[in-house]
Amino acid sequence: MNLQLLGMSKKAFDDAWEGYTYLIANQKIKKNQYLTICDFSQSSSKKRLYIIDVSNKKLIFNTYVAHGRNSGKEYATSFSNTPESLQSSLGFYTTAATYIGAHGLSLRLEGLEPGYNDNAFERSIVIHGAAYVDAVRAKAGVFMGRSYGCPAVPQNEATPIINTIKNGSCLFIYHTSNDYLSKSKILND
Asked: Taking the model in full, what pTM does it have?
């Protein structure tokens, strides 16, 4: 799939794959055809969201994704599970149901890692489209707009992305944070 040529590190993929297979084995993932990886170790000006069709070994989406306003500017460097922190949360999620909200079609996320992202539902951390995430900003050298902690995607790609991964697929938000990588029960069980 040439993921490294597109910017994803081998470590990001290996950790995502390890957690994905763990969650399938523990029956936490209902829809195992797709693995979504959000690589926050990359600049927000890069296409750092990858949706892989595991069954067909094919990358089906590679696009931009926002991080939380208080997680950093061009690069995400700080993460939190605390309500109203306006920061992104690391770790493994399962996608839930869709709804129509302030940003149109949106996808609820269920955080699977206590202490890291298990407040996602309470914090309204969802995948949604946003006008502040797009290729024009990236090409202009302007860092992406930032969300209140949601992995927001380009407005024109939100509906196909959400409809592809909704209802029980795996999402992994990755960063090289040693705190998370060394303490995640999913990655260290």
From this structure: 0.96
